Structure formats: C-alpha cells, structure tokens
C-alpha cells in the first residue's frame, strides 16, 4: 500500500507539471517541418487534379487544349485557397 | 547492387507466382512488410493488454500511451462526434507508423515509399469520408462546396474551385507521405554511397551526415504518420460538423 501512496503523490506532481507545460506552449504547433511539407503538397495537388480534370474533359469533348488551359488556372486558384485555408487552420 | 539509390524501392516476387485471371496477385516483398507491420502491431497490443496492472510494465505503458495519444488527437480536431471512428483512425495511424518505422531498419523495405500504397489508403479515407458526409447530412453535404456570402455571379467559378480543392485532398494526402518517405530513403542511400566511394580518409563526413539523417528520418517517419492521421481527423470533422 505504501507503494501506491508514493505513486499517487508522484503522479500528482507529474500531472501538475504537465498542466503547467501545456499552458505555456499551447499555441506552439507540433513541427514547422510538417507544416512546410503540408502547404507545398496542398498547392501541387490542386494543380495536378485541375489539370487532370481538364485533360479528361478535353478527351470527352475533343476540344484540346482549351479545358486543360482553363482548368490548370482554376487548379492554381484552388491550390492557393487550399494553402490559405490550411494556414488559417494552423494559426488557430 | 548498392550503387543505385533507387534499387531499394524495387518490388519483387517472393515465392510462387499467383494469377487471378490477368491480375498478378503474387506475394511480394511489399506484401511481406505490410503483413509484418500488421503482425507487429497485433503482437504488441496482445502483449500490452494481456496483463492489466495498475503500475504498468513498459509494453502496457506503450499501448496505453498510443491509445491516449490518438484519442486526444481525435477529440482535439474532430470533437466528440468523431469518437465512433476511433478504430479507423487508430489502425490507420498505427499501420502507417509501423510501415514507416519498419522501413528504417537497414535492408528492410519501406511500403509507404510507394505512391500506390499511400494513394489507396488516402482514396479509402476520401471515399469513406464522403459517404459518411452524405449519410449524416444527405444532399445538404453539397453545401460544403458553396461557401456563404458569395455573390451569385461568382458562384459557378467558386463551386468549380471548391470541387477541385475537395478532389485534391486524397492526392495531397498520399503524395505527402510518399514523397517524404521516398526522398528520405533515397538521401540516406546516396550518403551511404558517398561513404564507400570516398573511402577511409574522406568518408567520415558523409558518415556523420548519414547518422544525423537517420535520426531525422525517424522523426519524419513519426511525423508523417501523425500528419496522415490528423488530416483524416480534419476531413472527418468537415463531414461530421458541417459549417461553412
């Protein structure tokens, strides 16, 4: 039983330490490396998806290269909105 | 064999060739490592929850820590409504983490450095989340593509942009994991090659780089599994709590 009492006090001390810590760096994000990677892929992926959609539409309607051009730029816009959105999410 | 840094990503058959119609479903080294990582998780958790003691041993502590880690992640990002999906996110996180970590063992194979593996995982998440969204909200889920406060003249353009950004989710999710793992492992191999080619005199610098990179790669392996799981939570949050 003595062991448990000892553990209880140790647990309490450790918990209060953790609480203090989490108050201190509450707003700090987990890792800047992950954030950098996330933003860049977000941008690229939207452009790729837009171009693929444009390519599919072009082969459907036989209208090369108009849909690719349009959807490439729409993809760029979507990528930028994605980046802004996830950056806003990180700042929260 | 060691000269080509891309050689480590080769998929080859282990055992006999199995064909299903025209489909080649033979057991490869990729399947071996996927099976190995699943098996490791199962064994770890079997050992971890076998003896439930108040003062946990190391394995029990590890399993309990991973449980609370994932459950805190879900409640932080997706709220209490996402609790029923704990099993999905936990197994996803553990699978990706163990695939990444088993890949860090020398001479092993990194499953997640292949885009098809990560893309299938991401596509399953994407389809699943979309189905959950439609089940919860019906056709109201389509409101996700129509942000509020947009002039009706711009609406067609905005909807196309929103649809593209929605469709780009699985691509960005899979490309991120794949690119990180492949770039890291290629870099490790290249620096390893430098050690050999520079020999006993000049080889020490790339060797120290290699050691540092290995540490960084272990960090990246954990971080990418974490990012994969947390983004799944965020997408799930979009599907469960619809607000725009």
Description:
The complex is a heterodimer of chains A (92) and B (244). Chain A is mostly helical and 92 residues long. Chain A has a domain at 31-92. Chain A is 86% helix and 0% strand. Chain A has three helices and no strands. Chain A has helices at residues 2-24, 32-61, 66-91. Mean pLDDT of chain A is 80; it is low at 23-29. A two-stranded antiparallel sheet of chain B has the order 1-2. Chain B contains six helices and two strands; from the N terminus they run ββαααααα. Chain B has one domain. Chain B has 244 residues and is mainly alpha-helical. In chain B, a hairpin with a 2-residue loop joins strand 1 and strand 2. The N and C termini of chain B lie far apart (54 Å). Chain B has helices at 29-48, 58-77, 86-103, 115-137, 155-202, 204-240; strands at residues 19-20, 23-24. The interface between A and B is medium-sized, with 27 and 25 residues.
Properties at a glance:
heterodimer, A: 92 residues, mainly alpha, 86% helix, B: 244 residues, two-stranded antiparallel sheet, 6 helices, 2 strands, 68% helix, globular
Secondary structure tally: strands of chain B: 2
Global outline of chain B: globular
Number of individual domains of chain B: 1
- What series of H and E elements makes up the topology of chain B? EEHHHHHH
Order of the strands making up the biggest sheet of chain B:
1-2
The structure class of chain B reads mainly alpha
Secondary structure blueprint with pairings:
The complex is a heterodimer of chains A (92) and B (244).
Chain A: H1 2-24, H2 32-61, H3 66-91
Helix pairs in contact in A: 2-3
Chain B: E1 19-20, E2 23-24, H1 29-48, H2 58-77, H3 86-103, H4 115-137, H5 155-202, H6 204-240
Antiparallel strand pairs in B: 1-2
Helix pairs in contact in B: 1-2, 1-3, 2-3, 3-6, 4-5, 4-6, 5-6
């Amino acid at each position: 039983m003595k062991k448990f009492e000892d553990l209880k006090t140790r647990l309490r001390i450790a918990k209060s330490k953790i609480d203090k810590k989490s108050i201190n760096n509450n707003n700090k994000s987990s890792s800047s490396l992950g954030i950098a990677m996330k933003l860049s892929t977000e941008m690229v992926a939207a452009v790729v998806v837009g171009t693929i959609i444009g390519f599919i539409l072009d082969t459907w309607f036989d209208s090369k290269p108009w849909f690719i051009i349009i959807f490439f730029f729409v993809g760029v816009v979507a990528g930028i909105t994605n980046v802004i959105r996830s950056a806003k999410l990180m700042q929260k | 064999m060691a000269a080509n840094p891309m050689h480590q990503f080769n998929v080859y058959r282990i055992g006999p060739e199995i064909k299903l119609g025209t489909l080649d479903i033979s057991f490869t080294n990729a399947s071996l490592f996927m099976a190995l990582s699943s098996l490791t998780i199962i064994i770890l958790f079997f050992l971890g929850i076998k003896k439930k003691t108040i003062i946990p041993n190391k394995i029990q502590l590890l399993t309990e820590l991973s449980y609370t880690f994932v459950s805190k992640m879900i409640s932080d990002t997706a709220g209490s409504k996402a609790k029923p999906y704990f099993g999905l996110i936990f197994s996803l996180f553990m699978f990706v983490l163990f695939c990444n970590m088993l890949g860090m063992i020398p001479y092993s194979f990194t499953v997640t450095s292949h885009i098809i593996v990560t893309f299938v995982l991401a596509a399953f998440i994407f389809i699943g989340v979309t189905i959950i969204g439609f089940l919860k909200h019906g056709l109201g889920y389509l409101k996700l593509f129509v942000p509020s406060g947009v002039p009706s003249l711009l609406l067609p353009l905005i909807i196309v942009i929103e649809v593209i950004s929605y469709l780009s989710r699985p691509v960005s999710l899979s490309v991120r994991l794949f690119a990180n793992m492949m770039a890291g492992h290629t870099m490790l191999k290249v620096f390893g090659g430098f050690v050999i080619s520079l020999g006993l005199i000049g080889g020490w610098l790339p060797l120290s780089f290699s050691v540092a990179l290995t540490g960084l790669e272990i960090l990246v392996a954990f971080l990418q599994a974490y990012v994969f799981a947390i983004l799944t939570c965020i997408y799930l949050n979009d599907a469960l709590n619809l607000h725009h």
